[in-house]
Design brief:
The chain is built from six helices and six strands; from the N terminus they run αββαααββαββα. The relative contact order is 0.14. The protein has a single domain, classed as Jann2411-like domain (Jann2411-like fold, Orthogonal Bundle), CATH 1.10.3300.10. Strand 1 and strand 2 form a beta hairpin. The protein has about 200 residues and is mainly α. The chain has a two-stranded antiparallel ribbon with strand order 1-2. Helix 3 crosses helix 4 and helix 4 crosses helix 5. It is globular. It binds zinc ion.
Length: about 200
């Protein structure tokens, strides 16, 4: 196999939290045809570069840990998105990841206040730790009702709805929103000759 593979196409970052965009690197969760965009260390490193502006060195073992974290994050946030309790094992895995991430952060203080910084970029674990802390921020600080699963057919992307009246339904209006409009238009046409264009 050539090591000169073209970089994977960039995914739109629509989740509002990096941990949700990370979940969205696999689409169609539980559906008939999941699509994987972080299927190997290079693809995952490229996604981290897009999401964080840093390219961590990810080896095979780190990649496996990131994928396990992604499964846990998805289990937790997808459950909340449908007003269900997250599975305890997924919460436990997230807790372990948060504990590790917190142990690597550095607390500094100055006249301007305090800072709790991530480890230096480039460390192979940096992406995982950032995602774990991001998930903690969302879990503790986010409004559960704003955590949503895209209503698009076979999509299931997760996002945090920051719209004023919390009415967002789609990961991307130009993608799932438009596809839904087209589908409903066709259904109306099939439903009878009286069905009219809007
Ligand atoms: Zn969607």
């Amino acid at each position: 196999m050539s090591s000169e593979q073209p970089p994977p196409p960039e995914l739109p970052l629509v989740g509002g939290f990096a941990c949700l965009d990370f979940c969205n690197t696999l689409s169609g969760w539980g559906g008939p045809g999941p699509r994987e965009r972080a299927g190997d260390p290079a693809a995952l490193a490229a996604w981290c570069a897009q999401a964080f502006g840093q390219t961590p060195r990810i080896d095979r073992e780190e990649w496996s840990r990131l994928i396990r974290l992604r499964e846990a994050l998805h289990a937790v946030f997808d459950a909340i998105a449908i007003q269900a309790d997250p599975p305890a094992d997924a919460v436990a895995l997230l807790q372990a990841e948060v504990a590790e991430a917190a142990s690597r952060r550095r607390l500094t203080g100055s006249a301007a206040g305090g800072a709790w910084r991530d480890e230096p970029p480039g460390d192979g674990t940096a992406g995982r730790h950032r995602l774990a802390m991001d998930a903690l921020d969302l879990l503790l600080g986010g409004e559960p009702a704003r955590l949503k699963r895209c209503a698009g057919h076979d999509c299931a992307w997760l996002f945090y709805d920051r719209s004023k009246n919390a009415s967002r339904r789609w990961c991307l209006m130009s993608d799932c929103g438009t596809a839904d409009k087209v589908r409903r238009f066709r259904q109306r046409r099939r439903s009878g000759p009286e069905a009219r264009d809007r």
